[in-house]
Amino acid sequence: MQNTRQRRLSAAHGADWFRLTRHDEPEPADPPTPAPEADPAPDPADPDPEGADQLGDKGKQALDRMKAEKAEARRAAAAEKKRADDLARKVAEFEDRDKTELDKATDKAQRLAEQAAKATKRAVLAEVKAAAAAFADPEDAAAFLDLKSYANDDGEIDTESITADLEALLERKPHLRRPAPEVPRPPAPKPDPGQGARPEAPATDFRTASRADLEAELSKAVPGFRLRA
């Protein structure tokens, strides 16, 4: 009785009686049964060993199995080689893609380095002009100096070296120095009307002048002149 029940349950599982489906779903079709993988055909280039024609039926069957196993091994090896070749091709594609990205990154880094170098050069030139106050033309100071030598790889500028080199340059080429400004002359003082020439006194009128004024005036022309009493 128990064996009969087990057989019925096994048959039920085999028939897939317990599959649950929704009422609004179509009845699922049974999946197709995969075809069994065919045994690889013997390689015609693989000759039979010596004495194979003398083998019996069992020996020939064993020989066929051996040849089939060798063919299967060759097929598996060919498949593995194909997968390896495909993987190598994908690796090469990734390397080429990465190489392209690397080239782009290299070009971008080079452009950024050039831009940074130009910006550093402008900064050094500004420092040189600021320190070249003693030069008649600050452009002359920049023309005689190697601007690249005053900045390191981090873009830091050595202002002390700039100042020292500018002083040494003026010692070697004093004609580049700015001329000393002329001392302005003090303005001439304006004349003081109280200290200037005064208008002359009017001439003495002999008709109305007193005797003393008349004698003083005549004594200018004739020293010691005295009027008679």
UniProtKB/TrEMBL annotation:
Locations of Basic residues compositional bias? Answer: 1-10
Basic and acidic residues bias: start-end ranges = 55-86
Renumbered residue ranges of the record's region Disordered: 1-86, 173-212
Top-level taxon = Bacteria
Q: Where is the composition biased (Pro residues)?
A: 29-44, 181-192
Q: What is this protein called?
A: Scaffolding protein
- Name its species: Streptomyces nymphaeiformis
